[in-house]
Amino acid sequence: MPTTKDGLQKMLEFFLYGMMRASDALGNTPLFLRSIEEEGLRKFMGVNMPRFHATDDAVQACRAYTAEVDAEGLFDGSDTSFRGTDDALVGEIGSDCIYRRVCTLRHDEGLPVHCIRAFALEEMLRIRLDEEYDWKLERFGVPCRISFRKGAWK
User: Fold this and answer.
1) Which residues pair with 147 in a beta bridge?
2) What is the domain partition of the chain in residue ranges?
3) What ranges in 2-147 are assigned the alpha helix state H?
4) CATH code of the domain made up of 5-150
5) Do residues 20 and 7 make contact, with C-beta atoms less than 8 angstroms apart?
6) Which of 1, 35, 39, 65 is the most buried (most CB within 10 A)?
């Protein structure tokens, strides 16, 4: 596969899809994906985002994190929005999500959709705000709607 933007996108999709299928086989997909996301995010934020310091407000922290990873070139966060309160917030991710194809494949196969961006946001809130949040995919589509509620993992 040539080293092009499309080739890299395909490789990312195969990697994520395979990781999710492997975690399905292990029996606790959310725990497995959360563990992977936490490890990767701690390293990434330490190296690539040392100036990122989230506010104590969860909605603002999600907006700032999305803007920062957008600036780092990981994905286009311009179609992402957040609203709500510190205890319960809602995120919407539009059609430009780089992971949409993986989620669509799982959805079309009748498998649960596990939003990698939601896992990343959940872990960022835990790491930067020292608060536990649970996320739930409220709607898969355009836009995807994800809710976050404080406190379930403690």
Assistant:
1) 90, 136
2) 5-150
3) 5-26, 29-48, 58-71, 100-108, 116-129
4) 3.90.1520.10
5) no
6) 65
